[in-house]
Design brief:
Elements lengths: L1 H10 L2 E3 H6 L8 H7 L8 E3 H11 L4
Antiparallel strand pairs: 1-2
Helix pairs in contact: 3-4
Length: 63
């Protein structure tokens, strides 16, 4: 089970902050929402999809 979880993380897409903002529609969000959620992240930092979704959920008011 642990191997599968590691494989999923490794297979997960990583993109820069700007790339996630440009592809906000793939997350079902507006670009300004993704920009707000990733405001404190460095521009060159590579972020995984799960990280972005978690930050987006928090930004929208989820817990």
């Amino acid at each position: 089970m642990a191997r599968k979880a590691k494989q999923e993380v490794a297979a997960e897409q990583t993109r820069s902050k700007q790339e996630w903002i440009k592809s906000a529609f793939t997350l079902g969000a507006e670009s300004f929402e993704v920009a707000g959620a990733l405001f404190q992240e460095a521009a060159e930092q590579q972020l995984t999809e799960s990280m972005v979704k978690r930050k987006l959920n928090t930004y929208r008011g989820g817990v």
